[in-house]
C-alpha cells in the first residue's frame, strides 16, 4: 500500500518539476507529430514539384547507359527493407506511392524514401536520463534525505513512493505522449495514404516506452551510487553517450569474428547487427520484439533490486565524494578500466577488412590496448580516489 501522507509530502516537493515534465514531453510529442502532418500536407499540395521530380528521375534513368540500369526510363518505387522494389513510368502511380505514410524501423513517412515524420527519440531519452538521475540524487545532495531518513517513514516506503510518483508518472506521460502523437497522425492524414497498422504501432509505442523505463531505472541507480554534482553529471552523460562507441566496437568485433573465425563472406561479416542496434530499431520505429523486451524487463528488475538494496544502505558521510558507498570503489575502478579499455581498443579493429592495402597489425592493437589500459586506470583512480597511487595489489587498485 502507498503511504498517502508520504505521497502528499513528496507531491508538494516535486509537483512543479512533474508538471514541467508533463508539459515538456506532451508538448514536444504534439508539436513533433504536427510537424509530420504539415510535412505530408505540404507534399500533398505541391504536385508541381513532384511532377518535376518525376520527370527528372525519368530523364536520368534514360540517360544511364550502364549495365546496372535494368529499367531505363522508369522510376524505382521502394517498399521497405525485405520487400522487392518495383518500377513505373506512370506519374499517378509514382505520386500515390510518394504520399504513402509508413511507420517502420527503416522508414519514417513514405515508402519512397520521403521523410515526413521522425519520433526524435533523443528528447525521450534525455528526459529519462535526467528524471531518473535526479529522482534520488537531488534529495541526497540537497539534504532532504536527512529529513526523510530521520522521519518515521521507512526507507522502503520512501523508495517505493518516489518510484511510483516520479517513475510511474514519467512512464504514463511518455506512453500518453507517444500515443497522442500517433493518433494525431492517424486523424489528420487521409486513410488511403495512411499505411500504418495501428495495432502494431500501438504495441510499438508500448515497446519503446518500456525501453524508456529501462533507461530511467538505470539512471536511478546512477543517482543513488554517485555523490558529487560535477563528476556525477559528467559520468552519467558520458556513459550514455559512450554507448554509441560501444555499439561500434561490438559491431566491429562481431565482424572480425565472423570474417576471421567463422569464415563468412566479407559483405556478410560487415553487415553484422549487434544487440544495441536491434534495441535501437525498436526505439526508433514501431517494432515489437518479445525477446528484447523481455530482456529489457529483466534488466529493469535487476536495476530496481540493486537500487533498492543500495538505497537502504545509503548514508550521508560520503556526500561530496565521487561515490556514495566506499565498498563500491574497487569494483567501480575495475568496471571503468574494463569498459573504457574494451571500447577504445576494439574500435577500428575491422578497418583492414574493407580498406585496400591495410592489414591487421597485432603489434599496433597491443600498443593501443596497453595505452587504453593505462589511461583508463589513471582516469578511474583520479575519479574514485581523487589521487593516483600505485600499490602492490593487482593493477594497483587501492582499497
Automatic annotation (TrEMBL):
Q: Does the keyword Transmembrane apply?
A: yes
Q: Kindly give the InterPro entries that the UniProt entry links to this protein.
A: ABC-5_transporter
Alphabetically list the UniProt keywords.
Membrane, Transmembrane, Transmembrane helix
List the transmembrane segments. 14-31, 121-142, 163-189, 201-226, 238-257, 292-311, 332-354, 360-385
Q: Which domain of life does the protein's organism represent?
A: Bacteria
The keyword Disulfide bond appears for this protein: no
* Family annotation (PANTHER family): ABC TRANSPORTER PERMEASE YTRC-RELATED
Return the protein name: ABC transporter permease subunit
Amino acid at each position: 500500500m502507498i503511504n498517502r501522507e508520504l505521497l502528499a509530502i513528496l507531491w508538494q516537493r516535486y509537483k512543479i518539476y512533474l508538471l514541467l515534465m508533463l508539459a515538456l514531453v506532451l508538448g514536444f510529442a504534439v508539436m513533433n507529430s504536427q510537424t509530420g502532418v504539415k510535412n505530408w500536407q505540404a507534399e500533398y499540395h505541391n504536385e508541381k514539384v513532384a511532377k518535376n521530380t518525376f520527370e527528372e528521375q525519368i530523364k536520368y534513368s534514360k540517360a544511364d547507359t550502364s549495365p546496372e540500369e535494368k529499367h531505363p526510363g522508369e522510376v524505382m518505387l521502394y517498399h521497405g527493407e525485405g520487400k522487392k522494389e518495383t518500377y513505373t513510368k506512370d506519374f499517378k502511380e509514382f505520386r500515390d506511392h510518394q504520399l504513402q505514410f509508413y511507420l517502420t524501423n527503416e522508414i519514417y513517412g513514405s515508402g519512397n524514401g520521403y521523410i515526413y515524420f521522425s519520433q526524435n527519440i533523443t528528447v525521450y531519452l534525455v528526459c529519462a536520463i535526467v528524471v531518473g538521475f535526479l529522482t534520488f540524487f537531488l534529495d541526497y545532495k540537497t539534504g532532504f534525505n536527512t529529513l526523510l531518513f530521520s522521519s518515521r517513514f521507512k526507507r522502503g516506503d520512501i523508495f517505493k513512493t518516489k518510484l511510483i510518483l516520479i517513475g510511474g508518472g514519467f512512464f504514463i506521460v511518455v506512453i500518453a505522449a507517444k500515443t497522442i502523437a500517433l493518433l494525431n497522425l492517424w486523424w489528420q492524414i487521409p486513410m488511403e495514404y495512411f499505411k500504418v497498422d495501428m495495432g502494431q504501432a500501438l504495441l510499438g509505442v508500448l515497446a519503446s516506452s518500456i525501453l524508456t523505463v529501462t533507461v530511467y531505472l538505470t539512471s536511478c541507480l546512477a543517482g543513488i551510487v554517485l555523490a558529487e554534482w560535477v563528476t556525477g553529471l559528467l559520468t552519467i552523460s558520458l556513459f550514455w553517450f559512450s554507448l554509441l562507441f560501444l555499439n561500434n566496437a561490438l559491431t566491429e568485433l562481431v565482424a572480425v569474428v565472423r570474417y576471421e573465425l567463422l569464415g563468412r563472406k566479407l559483405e556478410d561479416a560487415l553487415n553484422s547487427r549487434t544487440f544495441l542496434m536491434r534495441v535501437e530499431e525498436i526505439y526508433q520505429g514501431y517494432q515489437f520484439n518479445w525477446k528484447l523486451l523481455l530482456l529489457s524487463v529483466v534488466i529493469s528488475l535487476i536495476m530496481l533490486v540493486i537500487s533498492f538494496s543500495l538505497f537502504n544502505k545509503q548514508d550521508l558521510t560520503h556526500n561530496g565524494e565521487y561515490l556514495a558507498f566506499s565498498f563500491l570503489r574497487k569494483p567501480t575502478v575495475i568496471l571503468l578500466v574494463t569498459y573504457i579499455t574494451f571500447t577504445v581498443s576494439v574500435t577500428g579493429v575491422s578497418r583492414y577488412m574493407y580498406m585496400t592495402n591495410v592489414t591487421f597489425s597485432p603489434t599496433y592493437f597491443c600498443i593501443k590496448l596497453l595505452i587504453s589500459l593505462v589511461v583508463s586506470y589513471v582516469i578511474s583512480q583520479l575519479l574514485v580516489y581523487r589521487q593516483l597511487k600505485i600499490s602492490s595489489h593487482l593493477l594497483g587498485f587501492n582499497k
